[in-house]
Amino acid sequence: GSEATAEQGQEEEVEDRLKEHMDNLLDKSAKTRQAALQSLRLAFSSKTLSEFLLERRLMLTDSLEKCLKKGKGEEQALAGTVLTLLCLQMGSGPEGEEVFRSLKPLLVSVLTDSTASTGARQSCATALGMCCYIAAADLE
Known about the structure:
The protein has helices at 2-24, 30-46, 50-70, 74-90, 94-112, 118-135. By secondary structure, it is mainly alpha-helical. Belongs to the IFRD family.
């Protein structure tokens, strides 16, 4: 009994930290947003969080969209990486497709923007390819 309680407490603590990082994606400071993206990248790549993310995918998608639109260089590159990991977490179902469909035009926009940094363009190209492979319903 006490092991299950301790494990549940740890899970709640992880979820609270993730919520805080997601909130920080909307911060005015680019450094705070970048730190939040790095933390989310680490969390998404080290643990399956699909249940937690399912409820928050729209808010997270909106936040990543803002980072891709308004951010520069490193922030855009990190947002592309986090988006790729989000697609992996959501999988090939309707939720993953929804995330991909909503951000695909923005990924293409950053990818084709000659003024965007090489890292941002590369990250968006990877996100576009991976998300398309995982979540695109349209075979073309």
